[in-house]
Amino acid sequence: MTGQIDNNKIIKCAAYQDGASIGDVTVENISEVLKRENTFVWLGLYEADGELLAKIQQEFGLHELAIEDALTAHQRPKIEEYGESLFMVLHTAHLAEEQVEFGETHIFMGPRFLVTVRHGASRSHSKVRERCEAMPQQLAKGPGFVLYSIMDFIVDNYVPVIDGLQQRFDVLESAIFESRPSRQTIEGLYELKRELLQLEGAINPVIDICNELMRFHSGLIPKDVQVYFRDIADHIKRIDQAIRGMREMLLAAMQVHLTFETVRQNEVVKRLAGWGAILAIPTMVFSWYGMNFRHMPELEWQYSYPLVVGGVGVGSVLLYLRLKRVGWL
Fold first, then answer.
1. What is the C-alpha to C-alpha distance for residues 111 and 108, in angstroms, rounded to an integer?
2. Which of 55, 59, 267, 268 has CB 3.0 to 4.6 Å from 30, enough for a Cys bridge?
3. Residue 270: which CATH number?
4. Is the dihedral of CA 84, 76, 47, 124 positive or negative?
């Protein structure tokens, strides 16, 4: 190995024996610590570079394809088995100034280790670690329980995102009914739809991941831990139902918005047509007097001008009142 490990990428590396923490360890000493019985290592990384991941691969014996995925990021949510270890990708989401920011958490899990590599917008796992350390009996079950705790933490963070998107939708819905349709409103609806689709793509694969963890990999995850993943699957299903309901309401709101815009345009066309009909009266009359005929009635009559103007005015007013009564003006 050449180069030097960037310790700023290492968030926390600790060893646990029989459910109790035995202290922090360095990456170089991981293999030595794992020689102890009933001991596993929980390592947290953030946007680890190739040098650090190469060292992690050497210490835990990870597959090179999984390391490559963890380095490049931009992976779809999935679970893959490499020998005695699992590699998982989960998408994270949280609200930042009313906008949804997405990230990724890559997880390597073996019989005696669990490694997380966070990319992009994702919350720290320090609270998860504190909660697990406060339950030594559960933590004694090994990396399987830590995996459940991290997945449960990621899924729980979807709920505030859904609540935030619901609040944004309520504001946009009120704008549709309380004010005139606008480009800003329709752009907000489309942006909300895009984020919902992206969030749906992040959560749906988690159900398949949980189903696989419940049924298989008993050598890595104890039987009494596998049932915990059913709870995560139930949470995901409820979140998915909320997203589907919001998407249906969103589509309905977009249709209502477009309908209101069509009605408004029709009102404008009706008004233009009404004023066009009113203007047609003086246009028709004055066009007659614009023709160069020698013999035209009332040309020599002194009251012809006010009579024509008055007739045009009365006809225009009567037509205006009629159109006003039927709602065209």
1. 10
2. 59
3. 1.20.58.340
4. negative
